[in-house]
């Protein structure tokens, strides 16, 4: 279509601007390149370590516990129902074992059976820990974590070995401490011919005092090894798990102590719910510990 006005008002068309191959003729000239819509100029979710960028904020036990509560209620189909199912299974197992032992009149057989059942329970608990620790880490990485994630990509060997090492070392240290500091008191209590009631009471007080001191020392030392199994569950080797776990525990000692204290308080509060709060407390403590581990390790966590 011709223009009614020319450059000189004579009704002739203006000269047409023909396209060229100059850079300034491109529609995106002068604009930054943002990459495709899917990438957004950054690495995708799966390309980031642990599914996202590493955590570089301050380590916070309250943040971990708050996230755990929100997650338990938002994904209640997995965590609350799973907690109910697990407690029911352990309850049925304990009831069956108790019935079998009670129906056996032989005291020695009952004692042996009780030891055997305790060992089996501890082994089952250890194996269950491998599943739920990995599941908690999946929950941090993927909001869609559900029942299908159970048993997926579990680090069986290193995690099991790390938990076993900690359990054995703790047991040996406890036995040695009792033998060194409370050997005489235990000998008095277990003596068949003890006649002095005052001596027996004094020995009992000594034993309970030693146990109380050991509990306090254990609480103070726990942060130094608490994170080691989590490093193993997250894919680190045994050596790296011990080294990184100790260093991370040392660097974040106070927050780990605060976490233990807050969990103790929540556990006491469960008593006033007639035990019903355990169905929430159990998954909350697991998820909060996983979140706190990721914070201490500087790895991906959800806000």
Can you summarize this structure?
The protein has 303 residues and is an all-alpha fold. It has helices at 61-74, 76-102, 107-141, 156-190, 197-221, 228-233, 238-251, 253-271, 278-297.
Folded structure, characterized:
Helix 2 (76-102) packs across helix 9 (278-297), helix 4 (156-190) packs antiparallel against helix 5 and helix 8 packs antiparallel against helix 9 (278-297). The chain has one domain. With 303 residues, the chain is an all-alpha fold. Helix content is 64%, strand content 0%.
Secondary-structure element string: HHHHHHHHH
Low-confidence stretches: 1-7, 31-50
Largest sheet: none
Beta-strand content: under 5%
Rg from C-alpha positions? 31 Å
Number of strands: 0
| Coarse structural class | mainly alpha
How much helix is in the residues? Answer: 55-70%
Beginning-to-end CA distance, first to last residue: 60 Å
Question: pLDDT average, as an integer?
Answer: 79
Number of helices: 9
Number of domains: 1
The quaternary organization reads as single chain
Characterize the overall form.
globular
SSE topology:
Elements: H1 61-74, H2 76-102, H3 107-141, H4 156-190, H5 197-221, H6 228-233, H7 238-251, H8 253-271, H9 278-297
Helix pairs in contact: 1-2, 1-9, 2-3, 2-9, 3-9, 4-5, 8-9
Key features of this structure:
mainly alpha; globular; disordered N terminus; single chain
